[in-house]
Design goal:
alpha+beta, about 20% strand, six-stranded mixed β-sheet, Jelly Rolls, Lysozyme-like, five-stranded antiparallel β-sheet
Amino acid sequence: MRTGGHEFEPGLAGNPGPPARGQPSDEGRRARLTAGRCPGVAARATLLWVALVAACRAAPVEPCPAAGLAADRAPLVESTSRFDSAFAAAGAEFHVPPTVLKGIGWVETRWQMVEGAEEFAGRPPAFGVMALRGVALERGAALAGVTVAAARRDPVANIRAAAALLDAYAGAAAIDRSHSEPWSVVVARYSGIELAEGRATYGREVDRALGFAAARAAPAGTAAAPAACPPPPASGGAPDYASAVWRASPNFNQRPADSTGAMHIVIIHTCESNYTSCWSWLVNPASQASAHYVVNEDGSEASQLVLERDRAWHIAALYDCTLNRRHDCWLNGVQSNHFTVGVEHAGFVSQDSFPASQIEASAALVCDVTRDRGIPRDWQHIVAHGQLQPGDRTDPGPHWPWIAYVHRVQARCGEVVVDDSAAFNDPALAAAAVPGTWTASDSTPDYYGGGYRWALTQPGATDGAVFSFRLAAAGPRTLDARWTSGTNRSSRAAYAVITAAGDTLAVVRQDQTTGGGRWHTLGTWTFPAGWNRVVLLQRDVSGAVVVADALRVRE
């Protein structure tokens, strides 16, 4: 990926000039140290690290956190990785505890070989299990005696480069490698985070990974070491989303006061980094970038950085409706930050999959945003960064589970949507059956999903487009229909509402000549458990078109 894709751009579509790019704060500056090595103590350091890391520690970088954060509470998901032998070998070679390598690898990439991509301008992409990037990647490769290309793509070379870099940092700091505590300084430097709070949180994440891995290996009945600090009282949450941690970014400005500033779309991003590095960079004035929210790897924590009412700097693109199914073309040429809410996710475009817990947490957050801000929950209003900025961004990438994700956002908000196309349906809850004689089309904009089906009305027609939805238990539901409008549409399209028992509750007429691209309420009825359905009938006087687009079922 190329530069210029995510940060606030002063000259773009009326953006005011950015605040001056200051130097990093005093607390963010690190002393320049000379390299060195302390051989012969790796095995002893490893044993002591595992034994001591979960115990109470004098605060290595920061005092106790101001809120009960994910770094303090969430357990390590796995205790072994396919790179354990590489961690051990590199640790022995460069006199770094293998557990330190393993903990950093877990925090950075969840032990995945990532192929870097740029998300924030000025921040080099990360590579490999150890997420080496930029100058650190080049220096680590040189110290390990491998090429930069190998350090990017070969896991053994990547881990060796990281170990060599940590060895140099440890030597420069002249730490006592036989104790766990001094390694905190080395880990903090490896993080590359300037913000003191971010360095402290990163260290706790590494400690958490190592501490829980060690705890799993401890004999049965062994008492857990006490936590360094008791959990503090709840902070009350972030201003717009109570479940989030409020970490204010200075990188924002006001939305326009006219209609172009009305929140209209949620954009899904990936950080191309771990969670702590992501929010730490986005609250740094030097980044000139931000997002409204960042969701961590396992969904146990989200940070709010910018108020939803304010304009975060998360996309560097003017809106082009041809990239979004020709939706809202009146916004063409408007800077996309004006009317969007940006949600970053810890992780990488290149990773094989995204954790279900992260997807679920993000869905809950986006449900909250869309509900509070009146944003429709559909494919034109929950979109990818790469979709609206395809020239130099692809996030969240090919492995983001779009169909399941949008369904979870909808489900969190108490609704199920049945599309005319099976590809956009959750087969456990929704199904559509449209006769083969109906024509598939996307020529009229503002459809749901990938298009719609239409048919000419006929007095003798006996079939229709069937939208089925499954209820686990009986109860009332409100049904809404959607279509694309036009002068040739039927002004009396008939929707038959039928229960799982086969009882027809109502036949509701709707005027499809107008109101396209919006939901229209058919009514509220009590349905039994099982597969209930709504049938858009083709039978009517000749000369009109009926359009089957989507059905929404609301609690």
